[in-house]
Amino acid sequence: MRISKWNAIIVLFFAIQASFSQAKKYYVHTVAFYNFENLFDTINNPNNDEEWLPNGAQNWTSKKYKKKLTNLSRVLSEIGTSDQQKEMPVLIGGVEIENRGVLEDLVKQPKLLPGNYGIVHYDSPDKRGIDVALLYQKKHFKPTSYKNIPLLIYRNNQKVKEKKEDEEVSDDKIEVATDDRVYTRDILLVTGLLDGEEIHVLVNHWPSRSGGEKKSSPFREAAGKLNRKIMDSLFKINPKAKIITMGDYNDGSYNKSIKLGIGAKLKKDEVKEGDIYNPFEQMAKEGHATLFYRDSGDIFDQIMVSEGLVKGDYSSFKYWKAGIFNKSYLIQTDGQYKGYPLRHSANEIGYSDHFPVYIYLIKEGK
């Protein structure tokens, strides 16, 4: 009987030891994207910002601007935080930004100061005067290169004249009259080291559906093809390149621009070398949304990752899971737009007409 007791104690001891040895520590980083919805200052700049001035159509005062910054900083500091993740996002892609100055004002807000965010931003030729940008925590991410890549699209469907492979690469491969060009946001490409690992990030804000989805679809399809071209150039250098493409695509995961242009995959097990996985496609199938129009919800805000962030062990950073940040304070609680994102109104400075999205990257600790 005594032997049985000792055997039981020994078995229990080794079971406890095994459980401790199996308990692994993981580092978790949040990567987020948010449409800031008209983050304009109150200064008159040469970028079609007249609507967003104190005497403009929006009656955009310093008080309203400061409230907007406070609201955005709260959201950005809380995206993806939970019992498992206490830190604010390490990378934040943002769109609908007037200039670098508004970003400098934003990262100085008390809630964001602990993040010590750096800024990558370029002025784009968008007719509304809005740009894309990347914010990054300096202690975790070190940019090594960055550039803005113009999206060249035209109102008339002129034939594209491609240069031969042995010719010098040029940003402009279309020879048409410049007054037919649709001026929109550039694509921002940032390469850097995330805690020592090379990561490539694309930030997008694709052409809107102005004039109708069908009529404007070729513009977004061109944006999808440009994304694919950028990513293929990175894969050519490193087939296992870790790429994150994020943005407000003004299209759903099911549209040609994403399914065919980017070639995004629904399931992880479909992802092969050179492929891109889109976790937000399944969310859309389940009825989730980041924005609403005429009582119909959709996910235009998405973050996609390359095979290098999907396959393999966790000795280096890998995609873990994704989410939509739609806390109650971001949601309209009454009126015609109950349940919609809480945006600006005549009486209230809200947050945005989009919910932010995020993914977690995890890495096994040593």
Low-confidence residue ranges: 13-21, 158-177
Number of helices: 6
Distance between the termini: 43 Å
- Using only C-alpha atoms, the radius of gyration works out to 23 Å
Helix content: 10-25%
**Structure class:** alpha+beta
Strand content: 25-35%
Average pLDDT score: 89
Order of neighbouring strands in the sheet with most strands: 5-8-9-10-15-12-11
How many strand units?
A: 17
Strand count, sense and closure of the main sheet?
A: 7 strands, mixed
Basic shape: globular
Order of helices and strands: HEHEHEEEEEEEHEHEEHEEEEE
Fold and architecture overview:
This protein has 366 residues and is an alpha+beta fold. It is 23% helix and 27% strand. It is built from six helices and 17 strands. It has helices at 2-22, 62-78, 100-107, 213-237, 256-262, 280-285, and strands at 26-39, 91-97, 117-121, 131-137, 141-149, 153-154, 181-182, 187-194, 197-205, 243-248, 264-265, 276-277, 291-293, 296-298, 301-306, 318-324, 357-364. Helix 4 (213-237) packs parallel to helix 5 (256-262).
Could you give the topology of this structure?
Layout: H1 2-22, E1 26-39, H2 62-78, E2 91-97, H3 100-107, E3 117-121, E4 131-137, E5 141-149, E6 153-154, E7 181-182, E8 187-194, E9 197-205, H4 213-237, E10 243-248, H5 256-262, E11 264-265, E12 276-277, H6 280-285, E13 291-293, E14 296-298, E15 301-306, E16 318-324, E17 357-364
Helix pairs in contact: 4-5
